[in-house]
């Protein structure tokens, strides 16, 4: 019963079996609960009311109810047990139940690894009166299944004090796997420094929507945010301020390891970015010898772009880049290292190409695969490199063609169109945070596009996924980040995960509205866009 993913959206007719199933489910839940618990709130969340939309749903008749006696039964495998404990950690505070994680028993909530058509991140969820079974080929698949289970429970499950329940999961089966392997979110920790705890909080929010990549923009004109042992002033001096002139900050190597560890406990890889050859004022200010004229500029706390460049002809530039890449590659278990390459307006085209020709092999030498912003396609992308497209609908055709040509020649693409999923763009003219250079981006605009057809001419196989960047010129507190990310981030996650055939704004906005009580329970600030039918406050 596997459904084949389509790369083009199908016409907007709802799939009849799914719709019928949902109706049946709602009806049967109503009958089952009549006379016991309060009917309206007791109907369990329909299996297809989650974000990202699951690939395939078959409703069943009887829900599963978590009770004081429920056990979480896991395979005898340390990683599966870890996912079981993570689930218990979510359920225990709000249910008040002990929910022991055990390796025995056949009822309750079961987490099992088994071969099947799940790929590296897919899963199956089966729910009936006696058990909920999560099955996947990998711990990552089980972790994503846990996020699905979480969204199938009432929003109050997210609270950290005991709530009344009941805790029912609709009966039936979900079979699910992602459309794309790269589903990312970026945090710019350079314009405003974000603490390790802020990054962890965001990681937890990403995990809820099955995002598997955290891209950290670790350096820019306003700050260098990671300790480099061989060039210590980068962090201690180059990291000592930020936009607006505040104290800035940087991650020690242990801080960074802790972010990587925490991300990996949520099955996210970290992609570190050192932006080069432009966006380098913090480095140039820290070491005079990196400048062509040998003079260090002052630190910079404004928001202009395009004024700085590493000195392309000097050999010391490549000693510097080699040291930085080596030390960051050593700390990074994931395969990718992002070298930026955007807005190098102070680097000649010739120098830009020469720089990329020398730097990309250094990334390979330290065992990593290059990612660059799509301007990298104006040079010669290394074999296997990925280009991150951040253009707009209105980007000049020649620039899009250059990206498409690279894709045809084997460069993979990550799609981050700025007028769609730049999370720092204002929603409308009244948004008090954010920028508007790519226009206003309301929720429907951010959701309503198809990564598979977005760049006409790019081979479908070149599209590796979607990433939602968050630039922080105007953002500092977690509440700021959340206000910009919610509700647009779940849409980016759905574009990366769900089959194109599920794409439909009218049903999506209802699913999105249903997330709001969960955000409230989690303390997440969000924008109550007038485009979404939110529940009353
Ligand atoms: C463009 S996107 C930039 C960043 C800014 C951002 C603000 C990109 C690769 N470069 O330097 O922070 O716009 O939205």
From TrEMBL:
Keywords annotated in UniProt: Glycosidase, Hydrolase, Signal
Residue ranges occupied by any Beta-hexosaminidase bacterial type N-terminal domain in the UniProt entry: 49-176
Signal sequence, start to end: 1-42
Pfam families, A to Z: Glyco_hydro_20 (PF00728), Glyco_hydro_20b (PF02838)
UniProt xrefs under InterPro entries: Beta_hexosaminidase_sua/sub (IPR025705), GH (IPR017853), Glyco_hydro_20_cat (IPR015883), Hex-like_dom2 (IPR029018), HEX_bac_N (IPR015882)
EC number: 3.2.1.52
Boundaries of every Glycoside hydrolase family 20 catalytic domain copy: 180-499
Enzymatic reactions: Hydrolysis of terminal non-reducing N-acetyl-D-hexosamine residues in N-acetyl-beta-D-hexosaminides
Major enzyme class: hydrolase
Domain of life: Bacteria
Family note: Belongs to the glycosyl hydrolase 20 family.
Name assigned to this protein: beta-N-acetylhexosaminidase
């Amino acid at each position: 019963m596997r459904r084949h993913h389509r790369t083009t959206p199908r016409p907007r007719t709802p799939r009849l079996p799914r719709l019928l199933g949902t109706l049946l489910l709602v009806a049967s839940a109503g009958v089952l609960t009549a006379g016991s618990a309060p009917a309206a709130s007791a109907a369990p969340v329909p299996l297809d009311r989650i974000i990202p939309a699951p690939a395939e749903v078959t409703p069943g008749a009887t829900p599963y109810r978590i009770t004081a006696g429920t056990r979480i039964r896991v395979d005898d495998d340390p990683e599966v047990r870890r996912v079981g404990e993570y689930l218990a950690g979510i359920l225990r505070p709000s249910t008040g139940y002990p929910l022991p994680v055990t390796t025995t028993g056949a009822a309750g909530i079961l987490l099992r690894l088994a071969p099947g058509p799940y790929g590296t991140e897919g899963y199956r969820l089966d729910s009936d009166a006696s058990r909920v079974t999560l099955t996947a080929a990998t711990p990552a698949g089980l972790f994503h299944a846990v996020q699905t289970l979480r969204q199938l429970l009432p929003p109050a499950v997210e609270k950290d004090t005991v709530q009344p329940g009941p805790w029912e999961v609709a009966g039936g089966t979900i079979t699910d796997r992602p459309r794309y392997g790269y589903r990312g979110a970026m945090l710019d920790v350079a314009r405003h420094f974000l603490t390790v705890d802020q990054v962890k909080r965001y990681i937890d929010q990403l995990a809820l929507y099955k995002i598997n990549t955290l891209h950290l923009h670790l350096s820019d004109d306003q700050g260098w945010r990671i300790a480099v042992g061989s060039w210590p002033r980068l962090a201690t001096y180059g990291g000592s301020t930020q936009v607006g002139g505040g104290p800035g900050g940087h991650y020690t190597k242990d801080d960074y390891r802790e972010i990587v560890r925490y991300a990996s406990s949520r099955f996210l890889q970290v992609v570190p970015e050192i932006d080069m050859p432009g966006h380098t004022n913090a480095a140039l200010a820290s070491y005079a010898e990196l400048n062509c004229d040998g003079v260090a500029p002052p630190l910079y706390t404004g928001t202009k772009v395009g004024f700085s460049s590493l000195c392309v002809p000097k050999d010391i530039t490549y000693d510097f880049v080699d040291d930085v890449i080596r030390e960051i590659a050593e700390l990074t278990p994931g395969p990718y290292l992002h070298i930026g390459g955007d807005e190098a307006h102070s680097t000649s085209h010739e120098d830009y190409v020469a720089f990329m020709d020398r730097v990309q092999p250094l990334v390979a030498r330290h065992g990593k695969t290059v990612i660059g912003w799509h301007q990298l396609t104006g040079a010669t992308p290394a074999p296997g490199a990925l280009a991150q497209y951040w253009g707009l609908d209105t980007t000049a055709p020649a620039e899009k063609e250059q990206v498409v040509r690279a894709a045809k020649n084997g460069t993979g693409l990550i799609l981050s169109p700025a007028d769609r999923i730049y999370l720092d763009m204002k929603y409308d003219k009244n948004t008090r945070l954010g920028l508007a250079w790519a226009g206003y981006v309301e929720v429907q605009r951010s959701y309503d596009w198809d990564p598979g057809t977005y760049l006409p001419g790019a081979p479908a196989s070149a599209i590796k996924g979607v990433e939602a960047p968050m630039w922080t010129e105007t953002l500092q507190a977690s509440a700021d980040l959340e206000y910009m990310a919610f509700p647009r981030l779940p849409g980016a996650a759905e574009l990366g995960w769900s089959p194109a055939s599920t794409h439909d704004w009218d049903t999506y906005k209802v699913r999105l509205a249903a997330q709001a009580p969960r955000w409230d329970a989690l303390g997440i600030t969000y924008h109550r866009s007038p485009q979404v039918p939110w529940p009353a406050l």
